[in-house]
Amino acid sequence: MKKALMIASVLLVAVISTACINNIAIQELNNKAAEYMEKGQYELAMERLQASLELDNTMYETYYNLGIAAMNAKKYEQSIEAFNKVIELKPDSVNAYYSLGVAQSDYADEIFEHGSNVSENQEDSDKNVEVSTEDKQKALNLKKDAIDNMKKYITKFPSADDMDVVNGLIKEMEDFVKKNS
Predict the structure, then answer these.
(1) What is the pLDDT of residues 77-103, one digit of tens each?
(2) Measured between alpha carbons, how far is 59 from 88 in angstroms, rounded to an integer?
(3) pTM to 2 decimals?
(4) Which CATH number fits domain 12-180: 1.25.40.10, 3.40.1160.10, 3.10.180.10, 3.90.226.10?
């Protein structure tokens, strides 16, 4: 009995030690990602945040930061995926709905301007691309999803200070969808 208790104690200490080491590594990765974000080095921030998620994929804050970094890097699909993960992990995260709506709307704008086959890192100067019917439909669907997510933001956070701004964005997107449908 004593031997089993001792083995269980050693295993418990090992598990706790591993968890502490992981938490320190996660914190270091997240801190480095924040430094990169402040410098505008979004790709490097994304790499650190992905590494952090490999250690613990249950931290909605890390997914949120990844979504922001990806959106700033114009990696809209990754951004949308990250914000959806935040909502999956923490459905009452009002900022995730707002940020998801912004990412969807920005991605739709990018598609309308350049098509979905244009590299996300390509310079704007030489992009006079005929946008396909499929791309236009994809962009309209993204705008509609963005409207829905902005409305969820309003519903979940009715006392938001930026309510007028968000309602203005919704109106602009609704007008855009009507005009291009």
Answers:
(1) 999 999 999 999 999 999 999 999 999
(2) 11
(3) 0.81
(4) 1.25.40.10
